[in-house]
């Protein structure tokens, strides 16, 4: 399970996907995190059942108190469980430099969260409040950044006319896909025309929605909606991110799709473990969720290099350019880009920008393990 989580950080959504209507009833449970009141939702699929349960809970409480705790037979970890054992000295996924005329706060983001996981730790919110610029991978509030056309999108997202997703799947994976389509309400007729990586992205996003993890509560959405007078800077374009997936080797795309078809229990465990690792500042756990040391194929190495390393150097270059202009920059980048030997943090440090890690109470952590002896090449 080393490919699907980095893919989810791309956050590609395809508007044409629609839900099938099903006669089977699905059940979800939302719980008020304060009083532990339970609200049952039922629907034609998991997403509909989850939405009904949350709506019933939020009719009696605020969104920040309501969360999905069960979908079908799968238990969903609560925010309290995810954040268990966090102390004042727990390191955040946050680094700062206050020694330049241009101050910078770099925060590793989680693109989809539960409302009950908010608010974020105070040091992150304080850095945002003091900022003059909000820097993100792409502006998720901007539906069209002008980098793509409809014709180009169709060409990049879809398979060649003679190809189909069904023809690429073995019987076992096709059975898994059919079950998930029934559970989520996604239409096979639309997915069948998509390249495997884009089909996987839609599948996982729909399943995360059912679990109660939504990008509307994600860090980019939350901070961009509060940007107000701040200048918003995008480090990448929509075209760059879509091209990355569209040009990934087909054998890797099929592995990504296969990993998107795991059981609800396995996907829930994977997602909540990753989010918990973020809250606990556990770099090793985050890196392990993205890297597969047992995999050494050329296609896999190229995928990792293009998804993380190459983009890290490019984004680091743009961050350095920004710092030539005075201001306080609040930089929000997927957490995967801030850990590992070729992380953006290490690249910036190698290029002379001293960064200090911030703890949950706002104190500064020692910079252990930030620098690698490896020579960076852009």
Mean pLDDT: 88
Number of E strands? 10
Distance between the termini: 28 Å
What radius of gyration results from the CA coordinates? 21 Å
Domain tally? 1
Structural class assignment: alpha/beta
> What would the principal axes of the Cα set say about the shape?
globular
Defining key terms:
15% strand, 378 residues, 6-stranded mixed sheet, alpha/beta, disordered C terminus, 16 helices
Structure description:
The protein is an alpha/beta fold and 378 residues long. It has one domain. The chain is built from 16 helices and ten strands. It has helices at residues 4-8, 46-58, 79-82, 122-129, 150-157, 165-168, 171-184, 188-191, 196-211, 219-225, 238-246, 250-259, 264-279, 283-290, 298-322, 344-350, and strands at 26-32, 38-43, 66-71, 74-75, 91-97, 102-109, 133-136, 231-234, 327-334, 356-359. It has a six-stranded mixed β-sheet, covered by helices on one side. It has a four-stranded antiparallel β-sheet with strand order 2-1-3-4. Strand 3 (66-71) and strand 4 (74-75) form a beta hairpin. Helix 7 packs across helix 9 and helix 9 runs parallel beside helix 12. The chain is globular. The model is unreliable at 9-23 and 368-378 (pLDDT under 50).
